[in-house]
Amino acid sequence: MFNSAPSLSLIRSWKDVSAEWKKLRRDFSERTIHDLRVATRRMIADLEVATAVTGSRKAYRLNRKFKKVLERLGPLRDVQVHLLNSRRGTSVWTSTFSAFLKQREAEEIRRLRKRMQEETRKGFRRDVWNTNRKLKSIEEGISRPVLRAAIQANIDKKITSVLLADARFRRTSSNEDLHRMRVQFKRLRYAAEVAKPIIGGFTNLQMQKMRKLLKAMGEIHDLQTYMTALAEWSGRKPPLELQKKHDVLMTAFKARPALTEEFNFRNRP
User: Fold this and answer.
1) Dihedral in degrees, nearest 10, Cα atoms 89, 91, 96, 97
2) pLDDT digits (tens, 9 = 90+) for 79-109
3) What are residue 122's phi and psi, to 5 degrees?
4) Residue of 52, 67, 60, 62 lying closest to 126 (CA atoms)
5) Which of 82, 78, 79, 72 is nearest to 112 (CA)?
6) Are the beta carbons of 148 and 198 closer than 8 angstroms?
7) Residue 3 predicted with pLDDT over 60
8) Average pLDDT value over all residues in the chain
9) How far apart are CA 213 and CA 196, in angstroms?
10) Over the stretch 112-153, which tens digit does the pLDDT of each residue have?
């Protein structure tokens, strides 16, 4: 029915997840963890659209399972980012902190290796293919306008969450609210990647801006969590140079336009 138009599919994203999952079982490097996290986020975005289109509880539950995978990868990712920051430090105690983090990294790798077994990956594969069959069956039976409306509703919901989070951060300027906005913005970015071929609307410039903004938020978040981890480990305040760097990044970020001004979300072409 829609052979000439872009269609929904979970298989492309699953193949990316599966390939990165296999790499992870051989290599638990920072790069591998990052790539699997990105592939998993794209899989989650696809499943959110599948849930919106089909109303399937199975798609929703599978989405929850992939979110748990993302959560499992988080602690190792944080330790590895902290390691990168600690190696840039010049003081004796940050060098000692690096040694502590290396031990933590080894512990997290052992934990994750147990959770990311081959049998687990095969179980995900079966669930993805079953959900994809349901998605394709429903997609073939509905009109293009109905499909576009379901995808648009999913996007609009995420835009609302992002704008509310941005407004809250502008009131509080807190690291916690910046992180909440970052999470919501990530979800919008990946949902936009899924939706763009079908409903259009998002320009390449908007997608580029979203990636740059997420990078800026990520730098602030990683530095803040590193300073927190360092303070908890050492029992004293982080070096003043780190706080100054954080303040410079935060000041520059707060000086940007509000999202309602920077992104014309509500009136996309």
Assistant:
1) -40
2) 999 999 888 766 667 778 999 999 999 999 9
3) -65, -35
4) 62
5) 72
6) yes
7) no
8) 89
9) 19
10) 999 898 878 999 999 999 999 989 888 888 888 888 899 999
Tokens linked to 203: 């320009």
- Residue given tokens 């997420």 in the structure block: 214
pLDDT at 95: 78
- 33: helix, strand or coil: helix
pLDDT confidence of residue 267: 44
CA dist 149 and 170 (Å) reads: 31
- One-letter amino acid of 84: L
Beta strands per DSSP E along 10-90: none
Both tokens of 49, joined, read 């659209």
| DSSP 8-state symbol, 257 | P
Q: Are 239 and 89 in contact (CB under 8 A)?
A: yes
Give the angle subtended at the CA of 77 by the CAs of 228 and 172, to the nearest 5°: 45
Computed over its alpha carbons, how large is the radius of gyration of the chain?
Answer: 21
The structure tokens 């499943």 sit at: 47
